[in-house]
Design goal:
heterodimer, A: alpha/beta, TIM Barrel, 9-stranded parallel sheet, about 15% strand, B: alpha/beta, 6-stranded mixed sheet, 4-stranded parallel sheet, 16 helices, globular
């Protein structure tokens, strides 16, 4: 059983944390990852920094900019994955990337390096199912799960097409918009979780806009198997740019509080 | 060839959230193409409002100077002062047919933003224009023009704070407001079906030019020249000539020279990559990060280019050349003095190349240059570059 499947089999729902490799610096990034893991992140999403992250809101975009200014390359992102793999051998890691990073290396090399670093899944945020044939064989060859995205605007027909190539877990986008914190969570989450649940046995994780313990609770109550928090954590890195100790404390405190929103449920 | 592909190029490399909007756009576009009411209304706006058809001017002084027969396709005479309005009227009308209630657009130099503001005002749709913060300062007059036309200009402070970041910001807005908003993309770039839609709405340039030159000369031209940033004016004039025995030349921004890292020549110096939704040529580093570009002409200052141009480059059907800032500035002054026509700095790149291309033509050779816009917007900048002296 893969690390991702194993995690969802023994824990439900799970807490997924997001960080941009190289934020706030190449060296500091691994400390951030370790703090997140120590504070209770069940699965880590590591973003490869990219110059034009159009799916992301301002908070995560600024993290991409910080990482690139620090000189972070895809090699550094792979190195971070390798470090996390050593630190937490059982913890699943998903690489979150924009497609040009993959295209530039060539999908064969990208997936081979991702696998060698110890990544369990790859999520290519701007590679819809229509274009995903370009990477599918390499993901399969290297045993990497292809994490698929489903949006509130995805039609039922597209949901079927997307799910037929998905593995690991399915990332449900909670809202129409980019990543970023919101005061309130979209009211349509339960409907989306229910609609996709009918079509797949894969675990369903909800992200985009999830930034408070009550959001986490709402996602869990909607029947999701996982909740993904990005901007709310990334913002803490930005806010504590000159105070590393404070940053680690703030991250740990936030993760513990957010995790508190999770109520264990039996897997249906 | 797969739908939405130009050879291997094009495609739809966008977040899942945008796919439903692209599918809706594709369906609406097919519907309006077949709708006589749409054609009738667009034709009315183009002729009665925008001032089509534009002249194909035989330039006597230029022809005498260059030793061949030189025509300018006068998109500078279109309402708004550039070819951009062909596309914005088409897409704004399409948005009306789709029942959208709001237009958003990106702009670099401000020309597409102004053209969108014009189309929005004419068709009664509110307009918001995303513009890099750096560009809002460089092009303060165009910001005022857009506001005068009733549009709201949103300065974009992320990334390099220029055109590519304005596109990113507009895409983010669109993702969040798909149901009531149409993203009026200004060039033949981005995900399918945008490159096709923009090409079709701009093809009126080439259709007219082809007919006009046949009427005037009784034959097709030897060479057609246009500048290429994203490539919309070029694809517009090239497309109706693609199956003819006519040399087509696209002119990119050579900036401070192709051997420096200060240019915008994605076809001449870029490599294949995915950028803002499409596979095309891209100025990128070894890891796939888009590079900063440079051109004296803001409209050519962009790291990528429309996917159809990428295909036309590979097939050899269109030749792509580059002209430096200095050559473009010289052509800007030359055309102003020789013909009394001040070209946009973008269009001045095409004029500059025409000066070179003319060497290969004899006195009966026919050269058509797409004068994509007028240069009033650039006059202040050029004055500054020359210390105030004309």
């Amino acid at each position: 059983m893969s690390r991702i499947a194993g995690l969802f089999a023994r824990k439900n729902p799970v807490f997924i944390g997001f960080t941009v490799a190289g934020d706030p610096g190449i060296g500091a990034s691994s400390g951030v990852a370790k703090t997140m893991i120590d504070a209770g992140v069940d699965l880590l999403e590591v973003a490869v920094p990219y110059s034009d992250p159009v799916a992301d809101g301002p908070v995560i975009e600024r993290a991409h900019v910080r990482a690139l200014r620090a000189g972070t390359t895809p090699d550094d992102a792979f190195a971070l994955v390798r470090e996390v793999r050593g630190y937490a051998p059982a913890l699943p890691v998903v690489l979150f990337t924009y497609y040009n990073i993959v295209h530039r290396r060539g999908p064969e090399r990208f997936f081979s390096e991702a696998a060698a670093a110890g990544a369990d899944g790859v999520l290519i945020v701007d590679l819809p199912v229509e274009e995903s044939g370009e990477v599918a064989p390499y993901a399969a060859r290297h045993g990497i799960d292809r994490i698929a995205l489903i949006a509130p605007t995805t039609s039922p027909e597209r949901q079927h097409a997307i799910l037929s190539g998905a593995s690991g877990f399915v990332y449900l986008i909670s809202l129409e918009g980019v990543t970023g914190e919101r005061d309130r969570l979209s009211s349509g989450i339960a409907g989306l979780v229910g609609a996709v649940r009918e079509k797949t046995d894969l675990p369903l994780a909800v992200g985009f806009g999830v930034s408070r313990p009550e959001h986490v609770a709402a996602v869990a109550a909607a029947g999701a198997n996982g909740v993904i928090v990005g901007s709310a954590l990334v913002r803490l890195i930005e806010e504590h740019s000159s105070d590393e100790t404070g940053m680690h404390e703030a991250l740990a405190t936030a993760i513990i509080a957010l995790r508190g929103g999770l109520v264990p449920q039996s897997r249906t | 060839m797969k739908a939405g592909r130009y050879g291997i190029y094009g495609g739809q490399y966008v977040p899942e959230t945008l796919m439903s909007a692209l599918i809706e756009l594709e369906e609406t576009y097919a519907r309006v193409l077949a709708d006589p009411e749409f054609s009738r209304r667009l034709s009315w706006y183009l002729h009665e409002y925008a001032g089509r058809e534009t002249a194909l001017t035989f330039c006597e002084n230029l022809s005498r100077d260059l030793g061949c027969r030189v025509y300018l396709k006068r998109e500078d005479l279109l309402h708004g002062g550039a070819h951009k309005l062909n596309n914005t009227l088409g897409q704004a009308l399409m948005a009306k047919f789709m029942g959208k209630r709001r237009l958003i657009a990106e702009t670099g130099a401000g020309q597409h933003g102004v053209a969108t503001a014009i189309a929005g005002a004419a068709l009664g749709l509110p307009v918001e224009v995303y513009m890099g913060e750096v560009d809002t300062r460089r092009q303060a007059l165009n910001v005022f023009r857009m506001e005068l036309l009733g549009a709201r200009v949103v300065p974009v402070a992320s990334g390099t704070r220029t055109l590519k970041d304005a596109i990113n910001a507009a895409m983010r807005d669109w993702v969040a407001n798909l149901r009531d908003t149409h993203y009026l993309l200004g060039s033949c770039v981005g995900p399918h079906p945008f490159p096709r839609i923009v090409r079709d709405f701009q093809s009126v340039i080439g259709e007219e030019a082809r007919r006009q030159v046949l009427e005037r000369e009784g034959r097709l031209p030897d060479t057609v020249v246009a500048c290429v940033g994203g490539g919309s004016n070029a694809i517009g004039i090239f497309y109706p000539f693609v199956n003819d025995d006519v040399a087509l030349v696209g002119v990119e921004a050579g900036g401070e020279g192709l051997d420096t890292d200060r240019h915008g020549a994605s076809l001449s110096r870029g490599s294949v990559g995915v950028f803002q939704g499409a596979l095309s040529y891209l100025l990128q580093d070894a890891d796939g990060q888009a590079l900063e570009t440079h051109s004296v002409a803001a409209g050519l200052d962009h790291p990528s280019v429309g996917p159809e141009h990428a295909m036309l480059k590979d097939s050899g059907r269109v030749r792509y050349e580059a002209v430096t800032d200095a050559e473009a500035l010289a052509a800007f002054r030359y055309l102003s003095r020789t013909e009394g026509i001040i070209p946009a700095l973008e269009s001045a790149h095409a004029v500059a190349y025409a000066l070179r291309a003319a060497e290969d033509l004899d006195k009966d050779g026919i050269l058509v240059v797409n004068l994509s816009g007028r240069g009033d917007k650039d006059v202040a900048d050029v004055a500054n570059l020359h210390g105030g002296a004309a």
